[in-house]
Design brief:
alpha/beta; FAD/NAD(P)-binding domain; 33% helix; globular
């Protein structure tokens, strides 16, 4: 390391965020940037710890100490090359990853981890600005053709790796633009969509063909693809949302979170949505059911739309402020997470289950909730209703952000008659192959809903397995 004592001399200095009064009036990215000198000093805090637990905690196996050292020395180009060695899209993960690497950082024993995520995005942004990232098409083509269905992080990573291996890749996306969850599920204030377009231009210049507004199983039969391509990669995500089968669910004003977020992202991109179909929080009391990142994204979007109030509830108990004894370092810390959206104005409540929705003239007006208690018995958790704790929460817009249960079956998967695993995701073997010959699967469709960085890692793995299959290499 350039300065093995940097962590003793340099204090942690996060980039910080734009002021709340300013950022809630637009959808521009919230996070600010440090100047290059300060960023290099932050990289110097990466200590020579012997065992890089940060690397262990990273799903894409980022060589974090190595590119932090290169950054500290001012070798931005070298840092970018080392970063891209394991991660196809650090500009995405550097913005939206929850940074399990920082949770595993040795300095995080004292809660003062290296700013790994911020260092990552600074490296890749400098690389784009300085022109280090340029199209680099493969010099030799194998003659093999692969169809990648789904252009989210797993599909993009798989397509990129397969193209680098010399295969001809066609990427199919059902929406108007490629990017999948990155484009339509994540708000602009976390990930500006120019970032996606910039990378797509590189991928297409390298030879990947992108075919949008094409839904496999509806616009094109999957049997046609099986005839035309040597292998198929399913990277369709796990987009079937978890629902609430309770009284009043049919009332107007209750929507799935992803429908809400997708619509606002499309509006930001210039799409027209009629008044009758517009889902807006303007002048409404908003209730977000679900305490995860998707729920947080709904909170920030509702605030920008001009909500009267925003409440977010979660059925699980409030996480502790600090690590509990059964959640030690270097594992991911299951502690209370306060996002930038929460900071902008949101009432948060925990240990509440929703009993029913109430309304007037077919429009929702309230949610009836009840407190629950949790007990751990032999490693499993048991929930009990707390008697006499029923309450009503005023809400004329309710957003269901309780996660996703499995991929959408209708169309593609139904036509393939593909096998599913016990969790109702696509069943894959050790080579990431499905029950259908020459069809592979990656990302959330195979693993269940997870992180963007995990999806990228899965896309890279499936590309390796497909390459081995096409070139008759042993798995």
């Amino acid at each position: 390391m350039g300065d093995p004592k940097g962590f003793l001399k340099i204090k942690k200095k996060p980039a910080g965020n734009r002021p709340i009064y300013e950022r809630t009036d637009d959808y521009s990215e919230v996070e600010q940037v440090l100047n290059s000198e300060d960023r290099q000093l932050q990289a110097s805090r990466c200590m020579e710890c012997g065992i890089p637990f940060c690397h262990w905690g990273c799903p894409v196996d980022n060589l974090i100490p190595e590119w932090n050292d290169l950054l500290y020395r001012g070798d931005w180009k070298g840092a970018s090359e080392r970063l891209h060695y394991t991660n196809n899209f650090p500009e995405f993960t550097g913005r939206i990853c929850p940074a399990p690497c920082e949770h595993s950082c040795v300095l995080n024993i004292d809660g003062d981890a290296v700013t790994i995520r911020e260092n990552e995005v600074a490296i890749v942004e400098k690389a784009f600005a300085e022109g280090y990232i340029k199209p680099n098409p493969p010099k030799v083509r194998t003659g093999k053709k692969v169809a990648v269905i789904g252009s989210g992080p797993a599909g993009l990573a798989a397509a990129d790796q397969l193209n680098r291996a010399g295969h001809t890749v066609m990427l199919f996306e059902k929406d108007r633009k490629a990017g999948g969850l990155l484009r339509y599920g994540i708000p602009d204030f976390k990930l500006n969509k120019h970032t996606i377009d910039r990378r797509l231009k590189i991928l297409m210049a390298e030879g990947i063909e992108v075919k949008t507004e094409t839904e496999i199983g509806r616009d094109i039969s999957v049997k046609v693809l099986l005839d035309q391509f040597d292998a198929l990669c399913l990277a369709i995500g796990a987009m079937h949302p978890r629902d609430l089968d309770i009284a009043g669910r049919e009332l107007d004003g209750i929507h799935f979170a992803m429908d809400y977020l997708t619509q606002q992202n499309k509006v930001n991109d210039g799409a027209y949505v009629s008044y009758d179909n517009r889902i807006t929080a303007e002048n409404r009391h908003v209730l977000v059911i679900g305490g995860g990142d998707t729920g947080s994204d709904c909170v920030g979007t509702a605030i920008r739309q001009g909500a009267k109030s925003v409440t977010q509830i979660e059925i699980l108990p409030k996480p502790p402020e600090e690590r509990s004894r059964n959640n030690p370092w270097p594992y991911f810390a299951n502690t209370l997470k306060t996002s930038t959206s929460h900071e902008e104005g949101c009432k948060r409540r925990w240990s509440l289950t929703t009993l029913k929705f109430l309304g007037v003239q077919q429009r929702v007006t309230h949610a009836e909730v009840q407190e629950v208690s949790w007990e751990s018995i032999n490693g499993s958790h048991k929930m009990e209703l707390v008697p006499g704790s029923t309450k009503k929460i005023e809400a004329d817009l309710i957003l269901l952000a309780m996660g996703f249960v499995h991929p959408v079956y209708e169309g593609l998967l139904t036509e393939l008659d593909i096998s599913l695993n016990g969790r109702k995701n696509i069943d894959v073997d050790h080579s990431m192959a499905t029950s259908v010959e020459k069809v592979f699967a990656a990302g959330d469709a195979a693993s269940g809903a997870s992180l963007v960085v995990t999806a990228i890692a899965s896309g890279r793995r499936v590309a390796k397995k497909i390459d081995e299959f096409l070139m008759n290499k042993p798995f």
